[in-house]
């Protein structure tokens, strides 16, 4: 039975059924003063604690509607990257759960998931394998990946010889070529040149316009304005969510009030 569209209390507009539901997510990291302290806990079977708990996320619940571009904003350390990793499935929450529907692709840390001794072409095929895509299907995507990445003969060279910009190009080309239902992008575009950044943002809008859900972490406020919804995180909690035009001024205020390091 199809879920009916609901009206979001924050936005006051009809909201499609969610493709991602984040339900009461909390994430605790154990912080050790010295590496040996971790070993001490293991030896003592956790009877004595040698760590401090750091809660990167605190009881966070968010819905990401199908076909929407949702922008996550917040200062460094607010929990944005942790949240994306949990949604992508590369990190498990301490509490809570995530419901997802469809194929998920993610561009997280620079070069994450790439084997640096392998060539770009080999990494493309490995990427597909990790997503459960057959070799034949992945080969059908290869021309689009090659065209978008624009790395020429480097495709058949080891990734360890790539510049950071080339790694992002290949990662982005892979993530967007395989027709994702959910695309997650974590500020990776900051590495590329301006022309490639514009090309990537256009690709994001194209994918979203075809019905995919896009979750974007960015400090580019011009890009953030194009979102259907913006969510402001700070210190592991949601401060507010709503139209970007309303959330961006609050984000600016937090950034201006934050002491510089």
Give a structural overview.
There is one protein chain. The chain is of the alpha/beta class and 261 residues long. It has a single domain, classed as Rossmann fold, CATH 3.40.50.300. 35% of the residues lie in helices and 27% in strands. It has 8 helices and 11 strands. The strands form 3 sheets. A 6-stranded mixed β-sheet has the order 7-8-9-5-10-11, sandwiched between helices. A 3-stranded antiparallel β-sheet has the order 4-3-6. Helix 6 links the parallel strand 8 and strand 9. Helix 3 crosses helix 4 and helix 4 crosses helix 5. The chain is globular. 36% of the residues are buried.
What labels would you give this structure?
261 residues, globular, 6-stranded mixed β-sheet, disordered N terminus, Rossmann fold, alpha/beta, 35% helix
Describe the structure concisely for a colleague.
The chain contains eight helices and eleven strands.
Order of helices and strands: EEEHEEHEEHHHEHEHEEH
- Number of E-type strands: 11
Order of strands in the sheet with most strands: 7-8-9-5-10-11
CATH topology, by name, is: Rossmann fold
Arithmetic mean pLDDT: 86
Q: Which consecutive residue ranges, at least 5 long each, have pLDDT under 50?
A: 1-9
Which word captures the global form?
globular
Query: What is the CA-based Rg, rounded?
Result: 20 Å
Q: So what's the CATH class?
A: Alpha Beta
Strand content: 25-35%
